[in-house]
Amino acid sequence: MNPKQQREVEILTRMEAGALDVSTGAELLGVTPRQVRRLRARFRQEGFGAVIHGNVGRGPANRTDPALVERILAVAGPEGKYHDLNVCHLQEQLGEPGEKISIGRSTLDRLLKQAGLRQRAGTSAPVHRRRRERRPAEGMLLQIDGSPFDWLEGRGPKASLVGAIDDATGKIVFLVFRPTEDQVGYLLLLRTVALSHGLPMSIYHDRHTILRSPKQPTLEEELAGQTPMSQIQRVMAELGIESIPAHSPQAKGRIERLWGTLQDRLTKELRLAGITTLEGANAFLPGFTLRYNARFAKAPEDPNSAWAPLPAELDLAYYFAVRESRKVRSDHCISFSGRLLQLLPDAKGPSLVDESVTVHVVPEGDIYLYHDGRPVAYRRVLASDPVPLGPRREMVRQPRPVDPKAAARRQGWLFARG
């Protein structure tokens, strides 16, 4: 018997000898008088065995099957396919149809720590920051960013994941892999979100030059009340979306934490799926996003959505595109990116010679021309086409002015020869 059981035997023995009454015995044992009477009755019948619990030597009824534990440790061990998954992610993967293992998170955590396969995460010194409450309604604020990372873990090219998360719900509303964090990725983000959800009220982002122009306004711009804008800035301004630049990564902590989660979860699910290309990774994202939102998204405080519906007649190529300006030549052609574009005649429109047209390049690379917001038809001039010529001009030879001194010298020379 252990010391606690020996003490209980001593107290019960004294009670049987009359040295202690029931109340005193209950106080010493830390139980009720009713329980003391039961213990004394058992002690009279069983002796010292009355103080030993009936479950001593028995296995717990809720003990995890050793065969199941061995199977879990095999896939979660150093050589297992889930060797670097965190406990929550591992629990979800074990519950998938391929494994069909149902186990509680706390039980799984205890088993892994007992086997030495997981360690308690270290904590750093806390930094005092002011908490910002979530926006109450979905669509009031989006946080957008790009995360360059070795998402395919060396099986394919490195890439940047461009994404957006709703501040009110924590729901992922867009993800796409791009070779680098570029304008095309953010244009795809804005266009896809606008078509699938609507226009958000505001967007929170960092101070990347793609999202915020670093240029200082010229004197003419200051007098006109204009500020330099990047292409993405211009799109947001024209669509009425408020652009909010963050002063630190912690200010947009919701999407920064998302990158930490995805760099842990998404990379491992891409590995388990055997994906080695960016095309395959982008095809994998929709299903992953649905599972993530079902697992982590929260209900908004205000059920009324703040998304602004996109007008049905909106010209997507006009807004969601990179723009550049070109001057029309006398042959009604413009040069853009090494290509010659011939503007087609418009019977109802004026001549555009010496006028400026804007070239709009959509994310897919297609080119659209506009003049004062009106689309302009064109065709590409191929190398095999004849060189376009402008209107022919008549050349008029002007008489050369006469120099009097030269004329006098010439006249004197003629007289001398005569």
Q: Could you describe the 3D structure shown?
A:
The protein is of the alpha+beta class and 418 residues long. The protein folds into 4 domains: 3-51; 66-114, no CATH class; 141-217 and 227-296, Nucleotidyltransferase, domain 5; 320-381, no CATH class. It has 13 helices and 12 strands. Strands 3-2-1-4-5 form a 5-stranded mixed beta sheet, sandwiched between helices. The protein is elongated. The chain has helices at 3-16, 22-29, 33-46, 66-76, 87-94, 105-114, 183-196, 219-223, 231-238, 253-272, 278-296, 316-319, 404-417; strands at 141-149, 159-166, 172-178, 202-205, 242-245, 322-327, 333-336, 339-343, 356-361, 367-371, 374-376, 378-381.
Summarize the structure.
The chain has 418 residues and is an alpha+beta fold. The protein has helices spanning 3-16, 22-29, 33-46, 66-76, 87-94, 105-114, 183-196, 219-223, 231-238, 253-272, 278-296, 316-319, 404-417, and strands at residues 141-149, 159-166, 172-178, 202-205, 242-245, 322-327, 333-336, 339-343, 356-361, 367-371, 374-376, 378-381.
